[in-house]
Fold this protein.
Amino acid sequence: MKILVTGGAGYIGSHVVLELLDQGYEVVVLDDLSMGAKENVDDRAAFILGSILSRADNEIALKGVDAVIHMAAFKAAGESVENPEKYTRNNVDGTLTLLNTMVDLGIHKFVFSSSAAVYGEPQYLPIDEKHPVNPINPYGETKLKIEYQLEKEFISKGICFATLRYFNAAGYDINGRVRIPENEPNNLLPVVMEAANGSRNMIEIFGDDYETRDGTGVRDYIHVTDLAKAHILAVHYLRSHPSFTVNLGSDVGYSVTEILDTARKITEKPIPANISARRAGDPPKLVASSEKAKSLLGWKAEHSDLETLISTMWDIYRPAEALV
Ligand code: UDP
């Protein structure tokens, strides 16, 4: 089977590409390198420099493809509040261009990177797929918009989709094969790593007055290799089953303070932190129930304990002097 991975040079995408190749799939990557790094794309995959916003680029990338894993998107919830147009253009317009090209070419299997951001403020925890959707930032809105379009428009056009609602992706390939860290990251874990290796002075803790156990935001961190494995299971499942939506999380929540404490232990660095105001668009606590993914796909998180998450990241971020 030949799979197109859009955004395959990105943080999650490059891990999905590795997992596909390891399991014997033929892989083509379409990426505009606005966020990703070509060096992170394994040599066994074909690489096309291009954009999902371009019909012509999509047509080239889709040649001979059996299924698409669509990961090309902007993902910084905070930035999306400041610049919503950027998110609508890439995450919505780009995805619709890709989907329409797929329909025209008769390619019907589609795995969509969605997000826990579609849920917004949790009404109960853990969050299962029946939880009402009500995003509180434009990033989450773009993901929900595509979920709706898949249901309302593209099922009737023959698209068979897997919507994967990621909680917080973290960690790096446990064999160290993805080497280039993200450029100007916004997510907590890479920011903590940069503060540990000295490439930034400190981390800002966005609020310590949430109704959580220590006042800082709680998230469900899931190892990127666990996420990647779910994509392959989803592709496989779609070969003989109808469309579906599942959460992907570890079902465990950690606060910003807990992450920092563990990171200080593992890196043996002080990691200076400063309490600042809450970031717009941040819910206090998000923790998944991934029971559906477990029962439907036979998936489970295997690398998502905090030590593995942080130590596989530190392998990538640690400064060169720490290696000798
Ligand atoms: N966070 C923080 N400082 C940062 C980045 C994130 O305190 O520099 C907090 C953020 O408020 C949230 C948690 O860490 O409670 C996870 O944020 P991230 O941006 O990684 O993911 P998301 O907001 O998408 O859940």
User: Anything to note?
Assistant: Residues 77, 168, 186-188, 191, 203-206, 217, 219, 256, 279, 282 surround uridine-5'-diphosphate (CB under 6 Å).
